[in-house]
Amino acid sequence: MTRLLVVGGGIAGLWAAVKAADAGFEVELVTKTELAETNTRYAQGGIAAALFPDDSADRHFADTLEAGAGLADPAAVRVLCDEGPSRVRDLIRFGVEFDRGESGLERGLEAAHSRPRILHAGGDATGAAIESALVATVRRRAVHIAERSMLVDLIVDAGTVVGARLLDDHGAITDHRADAVVLATGGSGCLYRHTTNPAVATGDGVAAAWRGGARLADLEFTQFHPTALAAPGTPLISEAVRGEGAVLRDVHGRRFLLDVHPDAELAPRDVVARAVWRQMTAQGGAPVLLDASALGAAFLARRFPGLDAVVRDAGFDWSREPVPITPAAHYAMGGVATDLDGRTSLPGLYAVGETARTGVHGANRLASNSLLEAAVFADRAARALVADSGPGLGGASPDTSCIPATARDSATLTVDREQLRELMWQRVGLERDAAGLAAASARLDAWRAPDVRDRRTAEDRNLLDLARLTVAAAQARRDSIGAHFRTDDPAQAASSIAPRAPELEAA
Fold first, then answer.
1. Residue of 41, 269, 421, 432 with catalytic role
2. For residue 405, is pLDDT > 60?
3. pLDDT value of position 399
4. Cβ(132)–Cβ(94) below 8 Å
5. What is the pLDDT of residue 373?
6. Model-level pTM?
């Protein structure tokens, strides 16, 4: 029986584990904390799919390409949009209860979608509903679940991944051998001082893949969500709130986005996030205001019950007054480069979900495509595992040029996580320039990674590696596009299409 190690317990990892177990694999599923603590659990807005008579996969395809600012891979987007409806139906079979109205499934509109196509569950608890259903599903399979075990490194033998080195809660490091490894560890929002991600999002899989020799791509593209509540923890306020009619105002009550983009609050996320950032700068750093008061208390409580509680617990009555918001790091468009079936450049290694760079998102992810991408490509990866079954599974080599990473741990000062996150926020955030990136690079090179002793030191090593790689990718792309905005390249800032930056490979 083929042994499979799946690292990560969000929608992508759970999906891959379930499908592989059903195909007869001996599956071990590893999660850093308890099984349910993932980015999936915190996804509020919903999942996008062309399921309705007035919509089509072609429309979804066009919307996704447009949001990606010319850098989305059409082949990957076609797979996403064509296979998405079937994966949503699978979720329903797995037990996800999407919200329904008198005429059937309810759907919402979010930024840059030409049609309402966003399914939600529990109002604003879509991710939690999906996570719960998939956890229950995987527990009914013959899957060995190892909670509170963190990925440290991949085990690579003669260029093939043959397992992973894991760290438990007691500081013990053990080797887990497998015929194939699926990385589904999520993104790296904790690189930044402000993030909507939970504390587990430290890019463990991407960093370990790079150290193992896998190719990475598009690390310069970090999506900053425009509306996180300016309160402790910066909780996300879903795009769906603006989709229902909430607006953004400056400190004087003016809808400033009307002057920025014809779609105003429903413009692509990178446009809205930068507009919020600039408006805050013009206001001396004061947050801008999200005004949902026109929606009324009853509607807000019914449509967004979780958010309603979060906002009120923070001391705001958003049914009566605007609430302060700020941008925050939300999603990594880049990651481990894969083909359309989750294969990486290393035989035996697959990547799915936010860990992977499939090419679907390009320079800017379309709202509510993340859960869909995880389901679609995890399903394809599971099928590829079956097709590739045997020693040295898989292995794809994306046809792109590579540049070596130059980061070295020659410094004597151990990295300080909070200083790193502040540095990334200030120098490698919503707007970048050559001077700021050079300063960030020099500061990062002055730090060394700690010896891995526990979860904290392992995460700090990953954050330092990814910070260096992200800065290198941002320096390599000198033009502005999508979520990567260079203030020192105004001629290119308005361009919608630019050449793809080189990929990164292990030194």
1. 269
2. no
3. 37
4. no
5. 98
6. 0.90
Give catalytic status of residue 269 as yes or no.
Answer: yes
Angle (CA) 180 24 3, round 5°: 25
Q: How many CA atoms lie within 13 A of 346 on its CB side?
A: 32
Bridge partners (DSSP) of residue 403 are 504
Confidence of residue 223 (pLDDT cuts 50, 70, 90): very high
Identify whether the C-beta of residue 96 lies closer than 8 Å to the C-beta of residue 133. Answer: yes
The 10 Å Cβ neighbour count of residue 317 is: 13
Vertex 208 angle, CA 204 and 212, to 5°? 170
The CATH architecture to which 224-329 belongs is Alpha-Beta Complex (3.90)
- Average pLDDT estimate for 303-323: 95
Tally of helices (H runs) and strands (E runs) in the chain: 15, 23
Q: How far apart are CA 357 and CA 354, in angstroms?
A: 7
Query: CB of 447 within 8 A of CB of 188?
Result: no
Encode pLDDT of 345-387 as tens digits: 999 999 999 999 999 999 999 989 999 999 999 999 999 999 9
Domain boundaries, given as residue ranges, for the chain: 224-329, 402-505
3-class SS of residue 482: coil
Instruction: Please provide the CATH number assigned to the domain covering 402-505.
Output: 1.20.58.100
Which tokens in the block code for residue 16?
């891959």
How long is the chain?
507
